[in-house]
Amino acid sequence: MAKKESDLRIWQNFRRGNKAAFQKIYFEHYRFLYNYCRKFTIDSALVEDVIQDLFINILVRKDRLSDTDNIRLYLFSSVRRSLFKALNAKEHKVTDLFDPVDPAFHFDDGVDPNYGEEEEKNRTIKTIYKSVNKLGARQKEIVYMKYFSGLNNKEIADVLGVSYQTVRNTLCNALRNIRKDFEADLPKGKLMVLCYW
Question: Which domain, by its residues, includes 187?
Answer without folding.
Answer: 117-196
